[in-house]
Amino acid sequence: MEILIIRHGQSEADLLNVHEGRADFPLTDLGRNQAMNLAEYLKEYGDFDAIWTSTLSRASETAEIISKYINCSINYDDNLKERDNGILAGTPITNENKNSHYNMKPFECIQEGETDIEFRARAEAVLLRILDIQKIQVELLYYLMEV
């Protein structure tokens, strides 16, 4: 199995120069075009079994655009959301706060946010679940082909 990890296209937050995190910003027109360009490339890349995406607008919209081009089902999962950056979500990026999480210890977090440890545990858990589900689907496909 091969896994491609794709970042969403440009979002409104990029234009507003604000922290994204859990704040839900849609794609811009450029972001939609970026998703379409990637989808056209992926169509030539090969066949895909599934798309897994965050439920945030910018990610799900990117996935939906790609899905139309490669004719692939989409699985939405809240656990694929970006790191929870707490009270910074949706606020302007300033010199004082743009790298604030880099100086934190793995067990510390921005107020109301997620620690490095929590984020990593969530990411690992969702990846293992996806691998398990996709493996089951592949095994079922092999079984059906043998029958």
TrEMBL record:
Concerning InterPro entries, the annotation shows: His_Pase_superF_clade-1, His_PPase_superfam, Phosphoglycerate_Mutase
Give one Pfam hit by family name. His_Phos_1
Q: Which residues form the active site?
A: H8, E82
| Top-level taxon of the source organism | Bacteria
State the SUPFAM superfamilies in the record: Phosphoglycerate mutase-like
Picking any one GO molecular function of the record gives: fructose-2,6-bisphosphate 2-phosphatase activity
GO biological process annotation, one example = negative regulation of glycolytic process
Q: Give the residues the record marks as binding substrate.
A: R58
- Please provide the record's keywords in A-Z order: Hydrolase
Q: Which GO terms describe its cellular component?
A: cytosol
Which PANTHER family would you find in this protein's record? FRUCTOSE-2,6-BISPHOSPHATASE TIGAR
Name of the protein: Histidine phosphatase family protein
Source organism per entry reads Rossellomorea vietnamensis
